[in-house]
Amino acid sequence: MNKLYKAILLAGVMVGSTSAAQAADIEYFVGGAAGYQTDTIKGDIKKDSEDVSWQLRVGALINEQHRITGTFGYMEDKFSVSGDKYKQEQYSWLVAYDYLIPVHKDVNLFVGVVAGANDNKVAGRASTDFVYGGQVGMQYKWSEHFSSDLGYRYLEQDYSENNIQIDNSQQVYLTLDYKF
C-alpha cells in the first residue's frame, strides 16, 4: 500500500467521522505536551537520536469518544559520532484521530492514527517528509475543564538526505489540555 493511498484513506476516515458528528456534542480544547523522543538514524550516521520533545495542541472532542487533534512539535538533539559533532532538529505538524474508551468516570484509554509532516534537519541537510503512524494511551480528567494524556506515539518517516536516513520516531508524552 503506497503512502498516497494511506494518506487518502486516513483523510477519508477523519472527514467521515467529522461529517457524521455535525449533529453531535462538540467540545474544543487547547494544550501543551512534553515528552521523550527517539529517532532511528541510519546510513553514514548510525545513532538513535534522543531528547525532550515539546508540543502545542488544539482539537475537538466529539460525543466524548472521538477526538481530533492538531499538534505542532519540536525536538532538537546534539550528538557526536566518531568524534564528529552533529545536530538534529525536527519540526512536526500532525493531525490525529483517537477513539476514547471509558474505563472509569475520570479515565479513558485511547487508540488512534496520526499523519502529517516532519521537517528534519540533520548534519545541515533539511527535508520535509510525510509521516504516519499510531498512538495509544490513557487520559485522566482532572476537572470539568482540565485533562492530561499519558501516551505513546510511533511515526514512520522517510527522511533521506546525503546518505543519512531517519526511519521512525517514537515518543512518550504527557499533556495538559484545557477544554472550553
Structure description:
The protein is mainly beta and 180 residues long. It has one helix at 3-19, and strands spanning 26-43, 47-62, 66-81, 84-104, 107-122, 125-141, 146-161, 164-179. The protein has an 8-stranded antiparallel β-barrel with strand order 1-2-3-4-5-6-7-8. The N and C termini lie far apart (39 Å). The mean pLDDT is 88.
Main traits of this protein?
mainly beta; eight-stranded antiparallel β-barrel; 9% helix; 1 helix; elongated; 180 residues
SSE blueprint and pairings:
Blueprint lengths: L2 H17 L6 E18 L3 E16 L3 E16 L2 E21 L2 E16 L2 E17 L4 E16 L2 E16 L1
Antiparallel strand pairs: 1-2, 1-8, 2-3, 3-4, 4-5, 5-6, 6-7, 7-8
Summarize the structure.
The radius of gyration is 17 Å and the shape is elongated.
**Structural classification:** mainly beta
Report Rg: 17 Å
The count of β-strands is 8
Mean pLDDT: 88
Between the first and last Cα atoms, what is the distance in angstroms?
Answer: 39 Å
Major sheet summary line: 8 strands, antiparallel, barrel
String of helices and strands: HEEEEEEEE
The residue fraction in helices comes out at under 10%
Q: Proportion of β residues? A: over 45%
Helical region count? Answer: 1
Q: Note poorly predicted spans.
A: none
Major sheet: arrangement of strands:
1-2-3-4-5-6-7-8
Morphology: elongated
